[in-house]
Each structure stands twice: as structure tokens, then as C-alpha cells.
Design brief:
Blueprint (H helix, E strand, L loop, with lengths): L14 H15 L6 E2 L11 H14 L15 H12 L10 E4 L2 H7 L9 E6 L3 H10 L2 E6 L18 E5 L11 H13 L3 E5 L25 E6 L1 H4 L7 E4 L5 E2 L2 E2 H12 L5 H9 L3 H28 L3 E3 L5 E5 L6 H12 L1 E2 L1 E2 L10 E5 L4 H16 L2
Parallel strand pairs: 1-13, 3-4, 3-5, 5-6, 6-7
Antiparallel strand pairs: 2-8, 7-8, 9-10, 11-12, 12-15, 14-15
Helix pairs in contact: 2-9, 3-9, 10-12
The structure holds D-malate (MLT).
D-malate binds next to loops.
Length: about 400
């Protein structure tokens, strides 16, 4: 029996698990303190009413002989794929129905898609980065190179022609920094990928927060991307499905490497290893794209956008550098007083009762930075912002 020794190369535990343990220990020691959680990017607004109704109706259907659904199509029901197709088409991006694969969330697909690629490929990830990208490749034993980012490039790495990568991760708007690429910048990544015969894994989980016209909502807005990119997206952030689990992956039919068609391979992979997302969840997800669904969802997104502004305004008042918060639910700030990330985490918890995420948890380049999320409750976010302002001013 041989174990996958690469698991030994992982950090002892996942970043958000570490934070949860630390906060639980602090709360136990200080039961009187009201802690405000702006750490993990989990939503707090309830599901939209039309989403809940669609879920109820589908559950009722499942209890009838005529409406019962057993195994569904592994790649998702046509009604949901068509709804997603319409969502992209409304932004001018054409997709074929069989280029869309429904999944139980972006996190799973980001890991699963790697199964199509040899472990002997080199992976390029930005630093700082959503830790899952790194861990997925560490456990597979792939070589990882980092595209270092910082304040000087607005935490948006650009291609370096002296570096050869086969798999490139792009998350825009980015987790954790909230920075988002313009179409012109993404064009350079598409050119680089095509020149290197590489594939871009484009994480679009936060696209719904984009309001700036110059920023791309999908990699497929960029000419040539259909020959070099896979897009992975989620219902978690747009519609609060973090506890309901649903996402989708777009694999264009043109995408081929070494004579293998990646769309066909992904279908083969999914039909073998996945039995699809529950019917009730897919019905609920489809309701997101109805007229009333989109209106309700926009109201929720605006709620989070306001939270982001409350946090950003507080930081502006204290002269703290940050990026994100405008086309993103994440605010990425420079720790005041030259504190290191974990030092600021402890300071913030102790002085403000606020939980955030230490930047260094997302990579070396995140040292000295810190992430706050706008996904919290509005009233609590206001209280947190006031506390942060007062504490930083008193530093
Ligand atoms: C985060 O806080 O970074 C999120 O939880 C990421 C995710 O959606 O898994």
C-alpha cells in the first residue's frame, strides 16, 4: 500500500479552518465579546424568494409519480444550461448548450478539471491566491510557479514571456485582492496562453460584482479565448448558494490539446465520476435567471456593495491603502502600523472584535496585507467599520 505522499506537503490545515479554530478559542476565552465575522467569504443574505419557491415546487414535483426525477443528465438539465446560455448571451457572449456543465460548485470543478491534465505540467498561479488552486496541484504533485503581485502592479500580475507555464489560473475579480482585469489585460493573458499552448482556468465566481464596463465578466469576451480557456463559475456569490451547492463549468468545443478534445473529455469524465446536481437545486438555480430572480439578486448584490463601501470609506478616513471593494466583495488592505498579517489579525480581534483573513494565508506576497469581506450583515458591518476606524486612528 502506498499513500499519496504529496499530502504531506500541504500546510497542516486549510486557512479558513485555522481561522475558525483561532476565533473559537478567543470567543471561549472572552464570552462577553461580540465578534463580527468579516473573514470567510460566505454570504449572509437569504436565498431569493423566487429561488426558494422554485425549490419548493421542485420538491413537491419529486413527491409525485409524474414529477419524480431519478438520475438526471450528469452534465445538468437543459433548462438550467439554457438559462445560463441566456445569461451569457445577454452580455454578448455566445455559448452552445453542450459547452455548459452543471456542477456542485466551483471549488470541486477547479480540482476535478485537473484530472484531464498530466501531472507533468507546470502551473502558474498568482501570489496571493485562493489557496485551493495551490493545494489541488500540490496534492497532484505538479510543479507550481508563482506570478508575484503587489501594490506596484495593483495586485494584477501580467504575463512574463520568460516563464513557460502549461496551466494558468486567473481569478477576476480576484480572491483575495478584489482586483479585476480589464479586457485589454486579459487579451495579453490569452495571447500568452496561445503562444505557450497553455490552458487558462478562469475562475469567474465573482463576475456578478463587476459594474465597470471596461472589466471582463467572462474570459470568453476575449477573442481567441475559446481555444485556450475553461471558465468555472458558481451560484454561491451571485445567488447565495454557498449552502445549496451549484456551479457550472464552460468548456468550449474548440479547445483541444494533443489531438484530444477537452469538451468531449470533460463530458466523459463527468458521466463517469459525477451523478449530477439534485433536480431541486438545479430548478432553484434556474430561477436566478428569471426576471424576478435577477431583480432580487441585484438587490442582494447591492446590499453587499454597500457593505464594501462602508468598509472602504472607513479605510479612506484613516488613510489606509486598499484595493478591491468596487467590483468585488473583497477589500484588500495594507496592514496599518507595518503590522504583519497575523499580527494584524490578532490586533483586530483584540481591539475591534472583528475577524478578517490574514493576507499571508493566500501566499507570501500577501504578507503585510489583510482581507475583509463585504458579505456580512449590514448593521454589523457598520459597527465593525466604526470600531476599525476608531482603533486605527488611536494607533
Ligand atoms: C473565501 O473566503 O475565500 C471563500 O470562502 C472562497 C470560497 O468560495 O470557497
Amino acid at each position: 500500500m502506498k499513500m499519496n505522499k504529496h499530502y504531506n506537503e500541504l500546510k497542516a490545515s486549510y486557512l479558513f479552518v485555522d481561522i475558525a479554530h483561532k476565533v473559537a478559542a478567543y470567543q471561549e476565552a472572552h464570552p462577553e465579546k461580540e465578534i463580527i465575522r468579516l473573514g470567510i467569504g460566505d454570504v449572509t443574505q437569504p436565498l431569493a424568494k423566487c429561488v426558494v419557491k422554485a425549490m419548493h415546487d421542485a420538491a413537491d414535483e419529486m413527491g409525485t409519480k409524474e414529477g419524480f426525477h431519478g438520475y438526471g443528465p450528469e452534465q445538468g438539465y437543459p433548462f438550467l444550461k439554457q438559462a445560463i446560455q441566456g445569461y451569457y448571451a445577454s452580455r454578448g457572449t455566445k455559448l452552445a448548450e453542450d459547452e455548459i456543465f452543471i456542477s456542485d460548485g466551483a471549488k470541486s470543478d477547479l480540482a476535478n478539471v485537473l484530472g484531464l491534465f498530466d501531472v507533468d505540467n507546470t502551473v502558474l498561479v498568482p501570489d496571493p491566491v485562493y489557496p485551493t488552486y495551490v493545494d489541488d496541484n500540490v496534492t497532484d504533485g505538479r510543479k507550481i510557479i508563482y506570478s508575484r503581485t503587489g501594490q506596484e502592479n495593483g495586485f494584477l500580475g501580467m504575463p512574463d514571456n520568460s516563464v513557460k507555464a502549461d496551466i494558468i489560473y486567473i481569478c477576476s475579480p480576484n480572491n483575495p485582492t478584489g482586483a479585476a482585469y480589464t479586457r485589454d489585460q486579459l487579451k495579453q493573458w490569452v495571447e500568452y496562453a496561445r503562444k505557450n499552448d497553455a490552458i487558462i482556468l478562469y475562475d469567474a465566481a465573482y463576475e456578478c460584482f463587476i459594474s465597470d464596463e471596461n472589466l471582463a465578466r467572462s474570459i470568453f469576451e476575449i477573442e481567441g479565448a475559446r481555444e485556450c480557456a475553461i471558465e468555472i463559475c458558481s451560484f454561491s456569490k451571485i445567488a447565495g448558494f454557498t449552502g445549496t451547492r451549484c456551479g457550472y463549468t464552460v468548456v468550449p468545443k474548440e479547445l483541444e490539446r494533443e489531438g484530444m478534445n477537452i469538451n468531449k473529455l470533460w463530458l466523459r469524465r463527468q458521466t463517469t465520476k459525477f451523478n449530477g446536481v439534485p433536480y431541486v437545486v438545479q430548478r432553484a438555480a434556474a430561477a436566478v435567471f428569471t426576471e424576478s430572480g435577477m431583480a432580487e439578486i441585484q438587490a442582494n448584490l447591492d446590499y453587499y456593495r454597500k457593505n464594501a463601501k462602508v468598509i472602504a470609506d472607513a479605510l479612506d478616513e484613516c488613510g489606509v491603502w486598499y484595493c478591491g471593494g468596487k467590483n468585488s466583495p473583497y477589500i484588500w488592505l495594507r496592514c496599518p502600523g507595518n503590522m504583519k498579517s497575523w499580527e494584524f489579525f490578532d490586533w483586530l480581534l483584540e481591539n475591534c472584535g472583528v475577524v478578517g483573513t490574514p493576507g499571508v494565508g493566500f501566499g507570501e506576497c500577501g504578507e503585510g496585507y489583510f482581507r475583509l469581506t463585504a458579505f456580512g450583515d449590514a448593521e454589523k458591518t457598520k459597527v465593525a467599520a466604526e470600531r476599525i476606524k476608531a482603533a486605527i486612528k488611536a494607533l
